[in-house]
Design brief:
The complex is a heterodimer of chains A (308) and B (258).
Chain A (H helix, E strand, L loop, with lengths): L1 E5 L4 H12 L3 E5 L12 E3 L6 H10 L3 E4 L10 H21 L4 E7 L29 H16 L4 E7 L1 E2 L7 H5 L4 E5 L5 E2 L1 E2 L1 H14 L3 E5 L5 E2 H7 L3 E5 L1 H7 L14 H4 L7 H7 L7 H11 L5
Parallel strand pairs in A: 1-2, 1-4, 2-3, 4-5, 5-6, 6-11, 7-10, 8-13
Antiparallel strand pairs in A: 9-12
Helix pairs in contact in A: 1-6, 3-4
Chain B lengths: L1 H5 L17 H18 L3 E3 L10 E5 L7 H12 L7 E5 L1 H5 L3 H6 L4 E2 L2 H9 L3 E4 L4 H4 L15 H9 L3 E7 L1 H4 L4 E3 H7 L4 E3 L13 E4 L13 H27 L1
Parallel strand pairs in B: 1-9, 2-5, 2-6, 3-4, 3-5
Antiparallel strand pairs in B: 6-9, 7-8
Helix pairs in contact in B: 2-3, 6-8
Classes of the chains: A alpha/beta (308), B alpha/beta (258).
């Protein structure tokens, strides 16, 4: 299959491209960032997905499938830019897909779509609406991009659309929100709270994406691997120390004393769990994770050791 | 204690945590405290414990009294300490507890999730033992003189039991109202502290006294329905559960006096 991957130039994109090539697919990358040490065989276009030149790639190459990885998820980025990239980029992907007869589009979203709140259930199902967005406006663009992608299911029925809501990634590349959050030797947690965190090793993430390309399930799916663990367990097993900070102080302390930066809205995600039910995805694709939670944490720990 | 926790039919992972965040380590700590309260402080006695199924989904439905849900804690302890094989009863926690620091931490790690229908259904479909007090916070708010009365039962629990095909184990807890003889509930003060109310006892502090507590489990009740019935049908069945519990309370009181 001929597969276009917008946003390929990340660590996940590289792993995904390598695996798709190995399985005999053609991989065409679109990213305005340079793809350093791109695997041999990737046809690379250094253009912005929202620009005319990206459309040309669709017109000339006529891909069979698109795996849309070009969403900005980290919260340091200026939010207006994020809005433009996440929504404008997603819109461009679906419009080009429709215009140029792409059969299958995979939108790679996040399980944080559901939001973290005290009264949110564990194991969200795909039909639940996003919650607690009012407390976390920084997440609005990702939720909007997810919902926009979902509209393609009825607005563009000729395009087979898969919307994936992926749990956190944790593994040796250090890619992802959770991995970034626990990078330092001290990890702040909100005193009196220890939410479950659901994560999967990046090899399992790649495995899930490859299965999605090959099995082409239509619809919205949560994707998760092993059972979630409380944050303090993750931090300890990763060889870090968690520092419970009273909530009143934490806003002031973050970004100082060697603690990571975190916006206020993100605090809810350190207080309350976001855990998804991924049974529909497993049923549709036969996906099973191969790397359990302890092994994923150990791999992360080995790649990012803390030297005392 | 560790041996009994190891015998629970709960799928703990390598880190000793189950898919709902129940941790073996926390459970062991929590249960060692409950054991002292159960055996020595309240010297709890159980009747009809065999009515609780050895395995598979079931819903323990009980009466509330005594300010701070001592009754729930003792039901949990009886299932772990006196039931053969031991079972983990999982309660549904008021939302205000989940928002408080340490509240969710203490409840989640030992299996008591926020009281949401989604949680109840999922636990029952996972063949867990659910513990429900349909009187809710109005039940624990009963004053000493009302301790053996029953306030309105919600109907949600019955629909959930029907939907999941879980038998209901009607249960009476006696003595929790004596342990915490509430003379008045301070609602305004409670609000300031972020709880629904604060029970005031003759000795002021909301600390339970070492009174004997008795738990009476009744014969399982099942109803022929799927949870989609009209309100009046459901209310009639809820009425049956409620009067069964009322009968267990009356019989229990007679035994206590005699």
């Amino acid at each position: 299959m001929k597969i276009v991957i917008p946003g390929i130039s990340g660590k996940l994109g590289k792993m995904l491209a390598t695996e798709l090539l190995r399985r005999g697919h053609q991989v065409i990358g679109i990213d305005k960032r340079k793809f350093r040490d791109a695997p041999d065989g990737v046809e690379m276009h250094d253009v912005d997905i929202r620009k005319r030149a990206a459309e040309d790639v669709f017109r000339k190459r006529r891909p069979d499938a698109v795996i849309h990885l070009a969403t900005v998820t980290h919260l340091m980025e200026n939010s207006e830019d994020r809005y433009r990239i996440n929504l404008g980029g997603t819109r461009a992907v679906f419009e080009h897909a429709k215009t140029y007869g792409v059969e299958h589009v995979i939108f790679v979203g996040r399980h944080t779509y559901y939001g973290a709140a005290a009264d949110a259930p564990l194991y969200h199902r795909e039909d639940e609406p996003p919650m607690a967005l009012q407390h976390f406006p920084e997440l609005a663009d990702l939720v909007a991009a997810d919902l926009y992608a979902t509209t393609a299911l009825w607005q563009k029925p000729e395009v087979n659309t898969t919307v994936l809501r992926m749990a956190y990634t944790l593994g040796p590349t250090g890619h992802g929100t959770l991995a970034t959050f626990i990078r330092g030797p001290l990890v702040p947690t909100v005193m009196g709270f220890d939410p479950l965190f659901q994560f999967m090793h990046e090899e399992d993430v790649v495995r899930a994406l490859v299965l999605t390309v090959e099995k082409r399930p239509r619809g919205v799916f949560n994707v998760a691997g092993p059972s979630p663990l409380p944050l303090s367990f993750v931090v300890k097993q990763a060889g870090r120390r968690h520092i419970p900070v009273p909530e009143i102080l934490i806003a002031a302390a973050l970004g100082r004393f060697g603690l990571p930066k975190l916006t206020r809205g993100a605090l809810a995600h350190v207080k309350f769990p976001v855990v998804v039910d991924a049974s529909a995805f497993r049923a549709a694709t036969g996906f099973e994770h191969k790397i359990d939670e302890e092994t994923a944490i150990a791999a992360y720990r080995a790649a990012f050791p803390i030297t005392r | 204690m560790r041996e009994r926790i190891d015998r629970l039919e709960v799928p703990f992972g390598k880190s000793g945590v189950d898919p709902y965040g129940i941790s073996k380590e926390h459970l062991g700590f929590f249960m060692s405290i409950l054991k002292v309260l159960y055996r020595s402080y309240f010297s709890v006695e159980c009747q009809g414990i065999d009515y609780v199924p050895k395995r598979g989904r079931a819903m323990i439905v009980g009466n509330h009294s005594g300010g701070v849900a001592v009754d729930g804690a003792m039901v949990i302890a009886s299932m772990l300490l006196d039931k053969e094989p031991p079972r983990l009863a999982q309660g549904m926690v008021e939302k205000f507890i989940s928002t408080m620091p340490f509240g969710s931490l203490m409840s989640d790690r030992v299996g008591h999730l926020t009281g949401l229908p989604e949680h109840a259904i999922r636990l029952l479909e996972d063949d867990r033992l659910l513990m429900v007090f349909p009187e809710g916070a109005r039940g624990t708010a009963k004053l000493w003189k009302e301790r053996y009365s029953l306030v309105d039962f919600g109907t949600g629990f019955l629909r959930l039991a029907l939907r999941t095909g879980a038998p209901i184990i009607p249960t009476a807890v006696l003595g929790a109202g004596d342990a915490m003889p509430t003379i008045k509930n301070a609602y305004k003060l409670g609000k300031l502290l972020g709880v629904p109310y604060l029970p005031i006892t003759p000795y002021l502090l909301p600390i339970p006294l070492p009174m004997k507590i008795e738990i009476v489990y009744g014969e399982p009740m099942t109803f022929d329905g799927d949870g989609s019935e009209e309100d009046n049908v459901i209310e009639a069945w809820v009425g049956q559960v409620k009067s069964k519990i009322a009968r267990l309370i009356v019989e229990g009181r007679r035994r206590r006096r005699g």
